[in-house]
Amino acid sequence: MFTGIRRKLIIYYLAVIAVIVILMGAFFIFFLNYFYMQTLRDNLYSQARLASALVEEMLARNADYEEIDQLSKDIGNNLGVRITLVAVNGTVLADSDEDPKLMDNHLNRPEIIAAMESEQGIASRYSETLDEEMYYLAIPLQGAAISGSERETAAIIRLALPLATINRVISNLVLFILGALLLSSIFALVTAVVFSQRITGPIREISNAAHSIAEGNFNPSLEVPGRDELSALAQNIKEMGQSLDKKIEQVLWEKNKVETVVASMRSGIILTDRELNIELINPAAEELFDIQRSEVIDKPINRAIRYYALNENLKALCSDGEARAMEVNLYYPRTAVLDTYLLPVSGKDKKIIGTLILFHETTELRSLEKMRSDFVANASHELRTPLTTIRGYTETILHEELTRDQLIDFLRVIDKETRRLSDLLDDLLDLAQIENEKGFVKKEPVDLTVLAGEAVQRVEDLRKSRGAVIKVTIPGDPVYISGNSDWLRQALVNILENSIRHGYENGKIEIAIYAEECHAVVEISDDGPGITEADLPFVFERFYRADKARSRKSGGTGLGLSIVKHIMVAHDANYSLQSKAGEGTIFRFTLALIN
Fold first, then answer.
1. Looking at the domain 4-170, which fold is it?
2. Residue 6 has pLDDT above 80, yes or no
3. 265-361 has which fold?
4. Predicted TM-score of the model (pTM)
5. How far apart are CA 48 and CA 292, in angstroms?
6. What is the b/e burial string over 15-54, where b = at least 16 CB atoms within 10 angstroms of the residue's CB?
7. Do strands 508-516 and 574-579 pair parallel, antiparallel, or not at all (unpaired)?
C-alpha cells in the first residue's frame, strides 16, 4: 500500500513526530512534575505556616504539649498531612500520627537540620515508622528568639505527605500527557498520510506517464491540478511526450525510407563498425553471398565473406580513411563478378566509425561483353567464308579463260554463296528486330494449327531435298493463343529446318499440337543424331554448332535457335529442348490459351 517515496515520506514524518512527541512528552512530564512538586511545596509551606501560627499561639498561652499534640492531630486530619513538632534538641514534642514519646530523636533528620539553618528544610526518604516513602517540609516557629546576629530556634514544625500519593498524582498526570501525545501523534500520522498522498499522488501519475512514454504511448493522460512545481513538471512531461512522438515519427519515417531504399536496391550493401563487425546487410547482399542476416549481424565480416583481398582493403580503409574500389570474383555460392566500392563512415571530428561496402554485380554485363565480342568474331567468320569463296571464284573468272561449262559452274557457286550471305544477313536483321521489339510485341489471336500448316509448307523444298517425312498431329478444332503470327511462324520454320538439316536423310519429323489444361502445347521431335549433354546448354547461343563441319555442309546460319529463343521470351512461353546423343531431339513450348 505504501511504497516508494510515499513510504519514505511517512517514515520521515513518523520519525519527526516521534522525536517531537518524545521531546514534548519529556518536557511536559518534567515541567508538570516540577510544577506539581513546586505547588505541593508551596501548599505545604502555607499549611506549615498556618500550623506554626496556631502552635505559636498555644505556646504563647503556655499550653502544655498534650494540647499541642492534640492540635497537631486535629490539623493533620483536616489537612490530610502528618504534622510533627520537634524541639531544637531533636525531641519530638507532638505528632499527628504517632505518640511523640515513643518516637526517636529527630535531630539528625535532614529537613530538621536544614530548617534550623535556614527558613525551610525539604527532604524525601523512607519512613521506618510509617513503612513508606515520605515527603517532608520543615520550618522553624516564628516565635524563635534572636540573640545578636545569630538566630535561635525554639522548635521546628514539620509536615509530611506519603510519596505514594504524590507519585500516584504524578503518574495520572503522565498518563494524561502520554494519552494526549498519543492522540496528537495519531492525528499527525493521519495528516501525514493524507499530505503524503497529495504529494505522491501527482508524482505517481507523473511516473506512470513517464513509464507509458517509455513503452511507446507518447500522449498519456496526465492532469495535475494547481500551479506548483509538480503541475509544471507534469505539463512539461506531457509536452515532452508529444514532442518525442513527433521526433520519433520523423525518425521512423526517415529510417523506413532508408531501409526501403536499401532493401529494394539490387546492389548488395553491408555496413560494418570500426572493428569490421557487420551492423547492416540488405537482401541483395544476403542473396549474393548466400548468408542469413540473423546469422551474421554483430559478427566479423571475414566470417561471412571469406575473401582475403576484401578484408585487407577494409583494414587499410579503417587505417587511412581512403575510399577504395576493387573487383571481387565469387566462386561460391555461384560464379559472379562484383564491382566493389569501400567507403568510410565518419562520426564526430571526422573519426572513422565504420565502413560501407557496395557490391554491384557485373556478371551479366561481362557476359554480354563476351557475347558481343564472340558475336562480332563469329559474324566476321561467317561472313568471311562466303565472301572469300565469292572473291576467289570472281578473280578466277576475271583472270582466267574458262569454258562455258566452267563459267556456269563458277557462277552457280557464287550464287550459292551469295544466297548464303543473304540468308545470314536476313537472320541477323530478324534477330536484331526481335531483340529490339520483344518488350512491346504486337499480339493478336492466332490459330496454332494454321501456323503449323504454313510452316510445313515453307520447309517443303528443304524436306524434299533431304527426303524427310513430316507428320503433323493437330486437333480438329482451332487452338487460339495470343501472339505475333509472323514471329511464331518463323519460330516453327526455324525449328523444322533445324530438325531437317541436322537430322538423318530420309528421317522422320513429328509436329504435335494439343491443349493441356489452360495452355497450348507444341512439340516438334525428330529421330536425328541428337545433341550431346556437353553441347545442350549452348544450343541457343548465336553461331553455336555442335558439329561445326557437318553443320556447315548442311547449311544454316547458326542463328536459327537463337531467334527461336528470343521469340519464346517475347511471348512469355515456357520452352525446353530435350536431346541425347543418338536418341533424337524434342523441342517443346507452351502458350496460354484464349477463348
1. Beta-Lactamase (3.30.450)
2. no
3. Beta-Lactamase (3.30.450)
4. 0.40
5. 110
6. eebeeebeeebeebbeebbeeeeeebeeebbebbeebbeb
7. unpaired
Q: How far is CA 342 from CA 270, 366, 422, in A?
A: 10, 21, 51
Band of residue 148 on the pLDDT scale cut at 50, 70, 90: very low
Cβ contacts of 4-13, under 8 Å, gap ≥ 24: 4/200, 4/204, 5/200, 5/203, 6/196, 6/197, 6/199, 6/200, 9/192, 9/196, 9/199, 9/200, 10/189, 10/192, 10/193, 10/196, 13/188, 13/189, 13/192, 13/195, 13/196
Q: Which residues sit opposite 469 in a β-bridge?
A: 508
> Can you state the angle between helices 560-570 and 485-502, rounded to 10 degrees?
150
Please check whether residue 91 is in contact with residue 154, taking contact to mean a CB–CB distance below 8 angstroms: no
DSSP label at 538? G
* pLDDT > 50? residue 83: yes
**Selected residue with higher pLDDT from 486 and 382:** 486
- Asked if 127 contacts 104 with a C-beta cutoff of 8 angstroms, the reply is no
- Under CATH, to which class is 441-592 assigned? alpha beta
SS (H, E, C) 319-345: HHCCCEEEEEEECCCCCEEEEEEEEEE
pLDDT tens digits for 259-309? 777 777 888 888 899 888 988 888 888 888 888 888 888 889 888 888 888
For domain 366-436, give the CATH number. 1.10.287.130
Q: How many C-beta atoms lie closer than 10 Å to residue 567's C-beta? A: 27
Q: What digits encode the pLDDT tens for the residues 330-342?
A: 877 778 888 899 9
